[in-house]
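Retry 2 of 3 after timeout on previous attempt. Resubmitting C-alpha cells to design endpoint.
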C-alpha cells in the first residue's frame, strides 16, 4: 500500500472516528489531554502499520482499540484510576464507541459539544476547543483562523481544558433551564461544524456529523423551533452535495446543477422538519430560504421575491454584513440588478466587507446582469485574486471567462 493511499485511508478514518474516540475516552477517563494524545497515537500507529498489514475491515474500531489500549497502558503505569481501568476494560475490541440505543438520545459527542460550549469558557475558547476536539482541526490551523501563533493557541486550549477540570464542569448534557441557556452556543457550534464540512474545500464528514448531532438534539428537545430550524437548514443545504461539483471537481453554481442528482429524500425530510419549526428564528429563516431553492423545479422558477422577503426579515432580526450581502443578491434577482447594487452599496458602507471576495463577486454578477460584461469580468477576476479557496477561485475565474465570452446566465455568487 502506497504512502499516499495510507494517508488517505487514515485521513478518512480520522474524519469518521476521531471525535468519537476522543469523546469516549474523555467520558471514561475525564482526562482531555490523555484522550487526545491516545487518539493521535492511534493515528500515528495506523500510518506505520497499515502499509504493511493493510487497512482493517473496521478502521474506526481499530483506531478505538489502539487508543483504548494506549490509555489503559498510561493509566496502568501510573497505577491510578482503578475505576477508570475497569470502565476501559468493558470497551470491546469491535466497539468503535457507544452507539445510540433505542430511546437514548445522548451520546458522547453530544456531551462533549455541551461541555465545550459551557458558558464558563469564553466564546473564543468554546469555538477553538470545539474545532480541536470535535472536528480534529490541527492547532496550527485554528491559530491561523484566530490570527495568533500556534504556541499561543496551544496555551489557550490548555487553559480551557484546565478550567473545565478545575471548575469540575460536568461532562453531561444539562437539563431544565440550563439546557435552554446553553442551547444557543451549542447551535452556533453545530452550524460552525456543518459549515466546515459544506465549504468548497471542506470535509464532508463534518457536515454529516453536524446533521447527526442536530438529529440527536432534535430528539432531545422535541418542539424546540431553533433546533428544528437548524436541522431543516442542514438537510436542505446538504441535499445538493452530489450535484455541487462536476467530474473534474470544479464547483457548479445552482443554475448549472443537475437537480435530479439532489437528494430528494433529504429535501422531503427537511421540509417535514421545517413544518415543526414555527416562528422566525435565524436558523428557521435560513431554512425557509433554502427550501425556496430546494423546491424550485428549475433555476428560472426560483421564487426570488419570497427569498428577498425572508432576507428582509432575517436582516431585521440578525443584522450582519454577510446577511446584508445575501439580501442584496436576492433583491437583485427579484427586482433587477439596480435594486441589488443599491443594497450592496449600503452593505459595504461600513467597510466590514472590504476583504470579503464574495462581495466583489456579487458586484460582478449584478454588473454583468446590468449589461457591462467587460467590467463584470474584471470584477470576477479581482474576486478570484482575493480568494484563498482553490475551488472558489477556479469557479470565479471560469465565470470571468464566461462573461467575457458573452455566456448568459450565471447564478448568485456564494455557496452553490
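Retry 2 succeeded. Sequence:
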Amino acid at each position: 500500500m502506497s504512502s499516499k493511499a495510507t494517508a488517505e485511508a487514515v485521513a478518512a478514518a480520522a474524519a469518521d472516528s476521531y471525535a468519537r474516540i476522543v469523546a469516549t475516552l474523555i467520558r471514561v477517563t475525564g482526562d482531555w489531554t490523555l484522550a487526545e494524545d491516545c487518539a493521535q497515537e492511534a493515528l500515528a500507529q495506523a500510518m506505520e502499520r497499515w502499509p504493511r498489514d493493510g487497512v482493517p475491515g473496521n478502521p474506526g474500531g481499530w483506531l478505538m482499540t489502539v487508543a483504548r489500549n494506549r490509555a489503559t497502558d498510561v493509566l496502568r503505569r501510573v497505577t491510578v484510576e482503578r475505576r477508570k481501568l475497569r470502565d476501559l476494560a468493558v470497551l470491546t475490541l469491535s466497539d468503535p464507541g457507544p452507539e445510540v440505543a433505542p430511546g437514548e438520545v445522548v451520546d458522547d459527542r453530544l456531551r462533549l459539544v455541551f461541555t465545550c460550549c459551557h458558558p464558563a469558557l469564553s466564546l473564543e475558547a468554546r469555538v477553538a476547543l470545539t474545532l480541536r476536539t470535535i472536528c480534529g482541526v490541527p492547532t496550527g490551523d485554528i491559530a491561523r483562523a484566530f490570527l495568533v501563533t500556534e504556541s499561543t493557541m496551544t496555551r489557550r486550549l490548555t487553559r480551557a481544558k484546565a478550567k473545565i477540570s478545575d471548575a469540575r464542569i460536568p461532562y453531561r448534557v444539562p437539563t431544565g433551564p440550563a439546557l435552554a441557556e446553553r442551547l444557543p452556543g451549542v447551535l452556533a457550534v453545530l452550524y460552525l461544524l456543518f459549515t466546515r464540512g459544506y465549504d468548497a474545500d471542506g470535509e464532508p464528514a463534518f457536515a454529516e456529523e453536524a446533521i447527526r448531532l442536530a438529529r440527536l438534539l432534535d430528539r432531545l428537545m422535541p418542539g424546540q423551533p431553533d433546533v428544528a430550524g437548524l436541522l431543516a437548514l442542514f438537510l436542505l443545504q446538504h441535499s445538493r452535495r452530489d450535484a455541487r461539483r462536476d467530474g473534474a471537481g470544479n464547483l457548479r453554481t445552482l443554475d448549472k446543477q443537475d437537480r435530479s442528482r439532489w437528494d430528494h429524500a433529504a429535501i422531503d425530510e427537511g421540509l417535514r422538519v421545517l413544518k415543526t419549526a414555527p416562528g422566525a428564528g435565524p436558523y428557521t429563516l435560513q431554512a425557509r430560504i433554502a427550501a425556496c431553492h430546494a423546491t424550485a423545479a428549475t433555476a428560472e422558477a426560483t421564487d426570488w421575491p419570497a427569498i428577498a422577503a425572508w432576507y428582509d426579515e432575517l436582516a431585521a432580526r440578525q443584522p450582519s454584513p454577510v446577511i446584508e450581502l445575501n439580501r442584496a443578491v436576492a433583491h437583485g434577482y427579484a427586482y433587477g440588478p439596480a435594486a441589488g447594487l443599491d443594497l450592496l452599496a449600503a452593505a459595504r458602507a461600513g467597510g466590514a466587507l472590504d476583504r470579503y471576495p464574495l462581495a466583489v463577486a456579487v458586484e460582478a454578477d449584478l454588473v454583468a446582469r446590468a449589461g457591462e460584461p467587460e467590467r463584470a469580468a474584471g470584477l470576477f477576476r479581482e474576486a478570484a485574486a482575493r480568494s484563498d479557496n482553490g475551488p472558489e477561485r477556479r469557479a470565479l475565474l471560469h465565470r470571468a471567462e464566461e462573461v467575457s465570452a458573452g455566456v448568459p446566465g450565471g447564478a448568485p455568487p456564494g455557496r452553490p
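Attempt log closed. The two ends are 36 Å apart (CA to CA).
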